[in-house]
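# nightly structure sweep
# worker-07 picked up a monomer target from the shared queue
# config: single-sequence mode, recycle default, output format = structure tokens
# input follows
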Amino acid sequence: MATTLHSFMDIFDTRFEDGENSIQLQKIIIPIIQRDYAQGRDNPDVVRVRERFIEALYKAVTENPITLDFVYGDIDKEGNMTPLDGQQRLTTLFLLHWYAAKKENIVKDDYDFLEKFSYETRYSARNFCHKLVNYNPEFKKDSLSEEIIDQAWFPLDWKNDPTISSMLRMLDAIHNRFKSVTDLWSKLKEGCITFYFLPIKDMGLTDELYIKMNSRGKPLTLFEHFKAELEREIRNIDDELADKIMRKIDIDWTDLLWKYRNSNTGSLDDNIIDDEFLRYFKFICDVIYYRKEISAGNRGKDVFELLDLYSSSKSQDAEENIKTLERFFDCWLNIPKYSSPEEFLSSFMADTHENGKILVKFASGSNIFKDCLHTYSDRGKFPLNRFVLLYAITTYLQNLDKVTESDFKRRIRIVNNLIQNSRDEISDRQDRNRMPAILKQTEAIILTGTVNEDISSNFNVHQIFEEKKKIKYLESHPNMASVMFELEDHDLLKGQISIVGIKNLHYTKRFKSLFECDKEKVDCAMMAIGNYGQMEGNKRRYQYGTKSNRSDAWENLFHRSGNSGFEDTKKILISLLDKYEEFSNEILEKIAKDYLIQCKENYPFRYYYIKYDEYRPDSYGKMWNDADADADADAEAEAKGYMFRVMQTETRLSEYSYYPALKAALRAASKAASDSHLSKEHYGDRLIFDDEYITCEKDSYLIRKNKDDSFVESIEIKQNADGIDIEDRIIVLKNYIEKKYIDMLSIAADISIAMKQ
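# output follows
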């Protein structure tokens, strides 16, 4: 017997020669040992393969004929052929020919060969094939499978047969794609779809041989399909290039990825490198995307789509893209001086400050390459900031002949500083895709050590300006590099040192000492020196520090932004740092207490902020000011501060916001007083007692009726000509509450105590 080319129609009319004998093919029988028909399954990988196979068949019918891969099989003496390899393709061809015959009302004699195709896997599958051949659908429903299932000869339990359910799903897919094709039968008859058939000379194959050769239950993986298509596409470009790339995939790149094959998914496939390869492939495709100044955010994650887009012969830059793929893999091979990628990465990355290393705090550690291999498809686990850092590293590895290791370590710090301070800028949105410009800037820094001013809209402008100043400064002060880098690596600064300033690098140790103290005490000590808060763009919201262990508030204060008041914050901080070489909680307490002592006759906003805990914001360090938003910012210095509301959220007032003067006076009157007196409905701007409520003004408290807001009385707060309190407004309101509402507070306190008991 010899390998011959056949269509699904003509193979049933074929005699196969074997020496002096010839055998007429009578039937194609899928044996019990074979797995179920799988091309109609409903999982994503199979759907992808099915769609691509149907599309290939469609193009064969409508455009250019196609020859499928080999079909291997055993033909016994009765002419029954049992496929060893090709079951899935043969079944799909059987369904396609059935569809063409029924759709075009072909006479029974012309398609009776379909009766010669049968499944032995289950009685139900065999019977279904027989019933199907003799059934004539009306094609009145959108779903062909629904029409078949509705037939009296179709038992409901057949839907549970995996082969039958797969066939039904495949018929729906065929119908959706081929329903508009005319003369489908004649085109199939002309041989637009063919395959090579190779008979197995050894008649009567054993079950053991089937199991060994057919890899039962192990269909080709997504990666195996991908690799085959990749090779096919590269060969359309250059056979020599294809040989080289496929050799590297099978040997060099497999060796590279092998140690990373276990991504802890719990999958049985963890022992292969398929997923790791495809994730890194997607990373490279996104690099190509950004280099073309296109957003990658909306592109599909299907690797076959990416392959078709970048590497097919239809792509204008296909050859260059293949070489890009090669460079991005090859760069991790044989890194000079280092035995592995992780050894190289750990040489310049650490999770705590170390001389000669950048600070990165990834949950996965410093092995960003491994991180990419295991998580790249998930932007939540491998965000764009990490993408940029990995791009910077691979840029260096691909240019070892141009960049020294010492230069790289300095330059990667610049890139890392820019990344950490460009959270808003590192974005990939259709209306604001900065990634192409960011990659250009990153590449310029790694290759030249300079920030390219010609590249617009890349990293944060404040940080770019700072990095340029640092580069210039260290050129003339190289001995200060270690001090500068130590300051950069402080948890509250993350690479931006403007709040201290290059001229004040000698305060690095002092800054570190200060923020090893209780944050609330730092907060009060700074406020004792001056009102250090910053006004945000809406002129209502203000940023302060926080008494909690959260660092967000301090980070926002110490990083240049659209807020006004940064330079004032800096002056106050430097003034504090100037006082002591080392700080302690006791020193900070004394600074705050000394200020309060000074406030014997005047009680500015800062006095209240320091003395009363209720004034100091928690969480995000945010306060809201209800005074005239257009008033001179300097007016806020003291008088405007009386109209602050403490926020509990980051951007908006909430039901838990409150006027600190009201809350502080309530607590002073009764420590057991319930916060329920603070109106949540009005964002904490009033104290409610029975049928009355109290509000706070710049120079008074107003009492009104709950029912109709009618005025009851006002409580004056004595102030000087500058609008500064000359009596403690908390004590003023406390005394009033104790005089008028003490009974309500006592009752509320008793109830509260009783409920706790």
